[in-house]
Amino acid sequence: MPNHTIADILRGLEAKTFSSEEITQQYLNAINKHDSNYNSFITVTAEQALAQARAADAARQNGSAGTLCGVPIAHKDIFCTEGVRTSCASKMLDNFIAPYNATVVERLATAGVVTLGKTNLDEFAMGSSNETSFYGPVRNPWNTDCVPGGSSGGSAAAIAAGLTPAATGTDTGGSIRQPAALCGLTGLKPTYGRVSRYGMIAFASSLDQGGPMAKTAEDNALLLQAMAGFDHRDSTSMDLTVPDYRAGLNKDLSGLKIGVPKEYFSEGLDPEIASAIEASLDEYRKMGAEIKSISLPHTHLAVPCYYIIAPAEASANLSRFDGVRYGYRCENPKDLDDLYCRSRAEGFGEEVKRRILIGTYALSSGFYDAYYRKAQQIRRLIKQDFDEAFKSVDIIAGPTTPNPAFALGEKVSDPLTMYLEDIYTIAVNLAGLPAISLPAGFTKGKPIGLQLIGRDFDEITLLAAAHQYQQRSDWHQQAAPGSV
Ligand code: GLN
Fold first, then answer.
1. pTM given for the model
2. CB within 8 Å of 318: residues ≥ 6 apart
3. 277 CA → ligand 1 middle, Å
4. CATH classification of 6-257+463-477, choosing from 3.40.50.11030, 3.40.605.10, 3.40.50.1970, 3.90.1300.10?
5. What are the pocket residues of ligand 1 if the criterion is a CB atom closer than 6 Å to any ligand atom?
6. pLDDT in tens, 161-187
């Protein structure tokens, strides 16, 4: 099972090699048997999955199958799922049963997927290691002493362990790409506005974007096809036609201009990652691409800028968790103030509180101009760097992360070191651009991710570039030692 892709499963279902019920049962058994090694699922929806699988088998029989009919996947537990606990890995939402489905969940259901369950994450998606979850850390199937990355670490570990062929993720500053890199997967952060945020619990609304995680670029294309498109319930959703991503996978890439930012090969980058990225660029040269050195001069400001904007938005978004309407409420509150204070003090974990404090401080009247306004100005400069670069190149390539998967506990007590984990991914969110991470080698048995960044709404070129590289390499086909 470990190398089963969505494309393989669709072929098997079409050829009647197995039914959706059979393959769903196999994945449920695998989760049951092996997830105690990884802690990648918060909730497993076995009965519901089997009912969906039987319905998918019936739909396939009577010719009403959607594009992903009968394919099992998992959802990051940040997407609202009707009737199923949606916890965001927080004590605050441990008892929250979502009354409706996120648009992403609904669209994938319409395409016919079977939902195995909800995957673990950093609390409210704040983190890069999946260690801030109320439900405990997730382990990396490539090395169980290491983190899987975050915040979509449960999704990444579940796929790498062979417990699901694919999953959804969200990416506010790197949370799809970084765990994909650390777990040897392919993960796409779509352009801001391409995939609806409706029903996706908000962290930093101007940065959050849902997207697919799977083994291959082809599977990412299949998932994105079902997820993308205008949604009137998300006011930042873009009303643009969604191209046929799978048909675009083989688009001619000769003459593709790939820019390589010199700032992405800075001090702090693991030398083995640097050489793996160089080697993948050589492959692109052989494929007829032209590699150019470029500069994104404001790169060094991306992390500090993000750590004002994201906490500021988080402090506003998380004010809704007040112990009154839903979620955790403290015992025996003395009065309303006590109810607010203790519900929030007891319901949120440390990292979430740190972000709320930073964000509230940055937005307070005496400091707004010095921090928040300044960060917005820097955000514009970062976007302009990309605009300038895309005048002369079609995509931008570099490492996804400065280092491979690190040990559990290694960075969790040092937030600044942890924040630098996203040094190559964060600018993309600030600029709203699409980017993909794909496997490009190994160092000491741990996967390395290559990041490709595209122009606004040009996911198709990224998917094609990733797919064609995967036709010439087998990094994405390697199975983690612990996988089923
Ligand atoms: N690691 C970053 C953070 O902690 C990004 C998280 C994300 O993309 N959700 O904010």
1. 0.98
2. 124, 348, 352, 356
3. 23
4. 3.90.1300.10
5. 125-128, 151, 171-175, 203, 310, 422
6. 999 999 999 999 999 999 999 999 999
